[in-house]
Structure formats: structure tokens, C-alpha cells
């Protein structure tokens, strides 16, 4: 049976709520499980973990398209389209690996505070890629976004410079990915169904990560095998985490297609608030008053940015 993801089906309120809920649940679940594996459990191999994620995305996308016929198969139509998919894969590698590495050194709450600056980088890359110039009020609202992270950094008890660098790099890469992703999912000449985009992107990502994994995390397969012999739970952790990452990426693409890159980033900030609260309850990491103030300021700035951009768009 083929499921039609055409506008009449995807335009309803129930679909929107369900889509955002699925994205929130899978995203927060992967984030917390990544933190547990890389920090608390002691599985310190973020690049290999990312490669496991993308391997699952490759297999599950293929099954969904070729066997289950959820959506029709689409072919890459041009070299430009293939180039953009490859760039998207490379940027995705940087965003996920950077985010996973940062979780080894930073608590989830601070990781999400830095991630809330994504609208700043989204505006920057939107201007660079498509020369999209916004009104001055739109850029003005980015000041509390950046200021909030500066305050949160100074008030973070568990601040780690390398972890912060990896986190801010991952945030910038994630913003660039959302801009390029929006082009691939919306441009008539390059439009791909979200599942097809993931089908093409995931194997390229695995190929990009393989040599990096072998160089930076040697013997990780043997180490994982030996660990699995001692504790079989690690196998289930990796399998479940990898499968959940597929739903994160699929719902991420669907949210971008259905609501646009900017709205997705604002929804991501709300998701970040939920993730912060849940992570503090689970991991009991210390949080300072200034750190929470900085994070709140960043989220408020991101919301103001969205409203200013929306009003500016309506005027034009």
C-alpha cells in the first residue's frame, strides 16, 4: 500500500500536532540516550555512534521506499542536485558529530542553550546562500540570542572550552543544513520527498564517516564487541538509539517541508526547553541562576526573531 503525503493529507491540524509531537519525542529521546551512552555509560565513541545512526537511516529508508512503498522512488535529476545532497550530507556529519562530541563534555542543558542560537546562524547562511536580506528589526532581535549564550556560558558550572567549540560548530552546521535542506525540499527543480532525500543522504554520510571513524576511533568495532560480551544491554542501546535517529531525521525533514526552516528552528527552541527540564530531572546536573537567565534570554530572542521575520514578510 502506498501512503500519499500530498498537501490535502498534510495540511490538517491533527497532522501538524502529530508531526511536531513525533519530532519532539524522538529528538529528545535520542539526545538523552546519546548523553547517557557517551557520558554516563562510558561509550566514548561519538563518530562511530553517528555512523550507526546513519546506517540505520540508510536501511530503514530503503525498506520504507522499496519494500513498504510508503512513498514513490525518486531519482536524482542533475549533477547540481547530487552536489547539494553531498554537501548536505557533509554538513550533517559536522552537525551530528559535533553535537555528540560536545555531549561528552557539556550537560544537555547547556548544549541546548548553545543550540538555541541556531536562528542567528540560519539568518547568516540564508543571506550567504540565497542573498536573503532582512529588515533591521529582524537582525536586532538576534542580539538577545547571542547575549543570552554569552551569559549562559559565564554562568555554566560545567563549562568546557572544547565542548563549547564543538557545540557552537554543530549549531552553525545545523543551521546551514536547514537552509540547504529547505532548498532541496522546496525548489521545483531539486524537490525530493523527505524519505528519498534521507535515502540518498544517509549512505553518503556513512561513506564520509567511515575513514574518520577508522582514524579517530581505531578498534572501536572490537571494543564494542568485547563490551557487548560483558553487557548485552549495549547492543540494545545502540540498536534502539540508531532506529530512533531515523525517526528524528525523517520527522526533521517533514517539519522543514511542512513549516519551513525558520519555523522548525523556533519549534526546536521550544523543544530545547523541554529537553533542558527533562535532562536536569534525569541527570541532576547543576544549573546556575545566571545560566538559566542566559538560556531564557536566548529563547526569548529566538521567538522575537521569528515574530519580526513573520511581520516583515507580511509587509512585503
UniProtKB/TrEMBL annotation:
Subcellular locations according to the entry: Membrane
Main location: membrane
Cross-referenced Pfam families: TPT
TM spans (from-to): 12-33, 45-65, 85-103, 109-129, 136-153, 159-176, 197-214, 234-254, 266-283, 289-306
Record keywords: Membrane, Transmembrane, Transmembrane helix
Record membrane topology: Multi-pass membrane protein
A GO term, aspect molecular function: antiporter activity
Origin superkingdom: Eukaryota
Residue ranges of domain Sugar phosphate transporter in the record: 19-306
One GO term of the biological process aspect: transmembrane transport
A single Gene Ontology CC term: membrane
SUPFAM superfamilies from the UniProt entry: Multidrug resistance efflux transporter EmrE
PANTHER family associated with the record: SOLUTE CARRIER FAMILY 35
Protein name per Swiss-Prot or TrEMBL: Solute carrier family 35 member E4
Amino acid at each position: 500500500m502506498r501512503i500519499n503525503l500530498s498537501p490535502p493529507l498534510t495540511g490538517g491540524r491533527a497532522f501538524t500536532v502529530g508531526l511536531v509531537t513525533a519530532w519532539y519525542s524522538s529528538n529528545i529521546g535520542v539526545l538523552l540516550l546519546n548523553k547517557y551512552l557517551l557520558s554516563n555509560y562510558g561509550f566514548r565513541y561519538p563518530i562511530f555512534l553517528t555512523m550507526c545512526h546513519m546506517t540505520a537511516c540508510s536501511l530503514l529508508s530503503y525498506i520504507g521506499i522499496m519494500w513498504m512503498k510508503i512513498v514513490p522512488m525518486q531519482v536524482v535529476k542533475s549533477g547540481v542536485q547530487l552536489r547539494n545532497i553531498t554537501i548536505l550530507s557533509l554538513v550533517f556529519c559536522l552537525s551530528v558529530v559535533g553535537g555528540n562530541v560536545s555531549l561528552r563534555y557539556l550537560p544537555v542543558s547547556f548544549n541546548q542553550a548553545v543550540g538555541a542560537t541556531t536562528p542567528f546562524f540560519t539568518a547568516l547562511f540564508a543571506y550567504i546562500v540565497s542573498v536573503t536580506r532582512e529588515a533591521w528589526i529582524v537582525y536586532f532581535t538576534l542580539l538577545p540570542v547571542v547575549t543570552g549564550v554569552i551569559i549562559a556560558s559565564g554562568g555554566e558550572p560545567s563549562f568546557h572550552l572544547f565542548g563549547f567549540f564543538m557545540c557552537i560548530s554543530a549549531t552553525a552546521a545545523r543551521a546551514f543544513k536547514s537552509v540547504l535542506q529547505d532548498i532541496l525540499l522546496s525548489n521545483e527543480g531539486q524537490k525530493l520527498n523527505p524519505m528519498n532525500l534521507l535515502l540518498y543522504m544517509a549512505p553518503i554520510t556513512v561513506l564520509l564517516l567511515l575513514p574518520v571513524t577508522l582514524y579517530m576511533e581505531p578498534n572501536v568495532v572490537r571494543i564494542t564487541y568485547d563490551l557487548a560480551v560483558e553487557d548485552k544491554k549495549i547492543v540494545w542501546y545502540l540498536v534502539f538509539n540508531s532506529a530512533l535517529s531515523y525517526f528524528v531525521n525523517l520527522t526533521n525533514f517533514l517539519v522543514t517541508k511542512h513549516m519551513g526552516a525558520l519555523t522548525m528552528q523556533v519549534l526546536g527552541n521550544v523543544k530545547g526547553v523541554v529537553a533542558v527540564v527533562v535532562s536536569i530531572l534525569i541527570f541532576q546536573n547543576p544549573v546556575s541562576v545566571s545560566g538559566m537567565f542566559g538560556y531564557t534570554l536566548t529563547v526569548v530572542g529566538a521567538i522575537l526573531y521569528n515574530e519580526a521575520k513573520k511581520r516583515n514578510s507580511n509587509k512585503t
